[in-house]
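Sequence only, no structure available. Ideas?
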Amino acid sequence: MHNEIIFSYDGNPSHENSRTPTIRSIDGVLAKTGMYGPIFMVIIAIMQLYYLPKYLIWFFVFLWINESIIIFAKKVIQQPRPGQRVLPDSQNAQYGYYGMPSGHAQHALFIMTFVWLVNPSWAVLCIYIAITGITLLERYNNKRHTLEQLFVGGISGCIIAYISVMIMRKYYEYK
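Reply:
I predicted one. Tokens follow.
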């Protein structure tokens, strides 16, 4: 017997039409910024770490490890996104259908923490905080994640970044 994944995101399209064009435009920009926030943050990290090549290489290694942890956690936990019902033993289920932990939150907080610990800059930190805030709001407002999923993803990202930097520092300390 084959089970299916059933999606039912809550949303009221008529509510969107009741907004003024300016507000819809701002919402669209914020939604795109939130959706692609971690990508923007990687670009900023590359600029921030460009003249520190050994840290830039480690950044990409640990970013890949962070992504692998997200995929593994989603497969193990299998908590659905809000408004989504995942039937057990579904052969169609992929890690992206699950919500715990939030990959966007985990990546955003990983990048922000890693870059801050390696090459602190208050200006870059402020930009990261703004992008992270927009990303978390977008994921919650569009019912892609619950607050719990965002919190777990964010805390996981910070912890993984901290451990990554400590491993990197120990490596150079013994070298």
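The helical segments are 13-17, 21-35, 37-49, 53-77, 103-118, 122-141, 147-174.
Hope that gets you unstuck.
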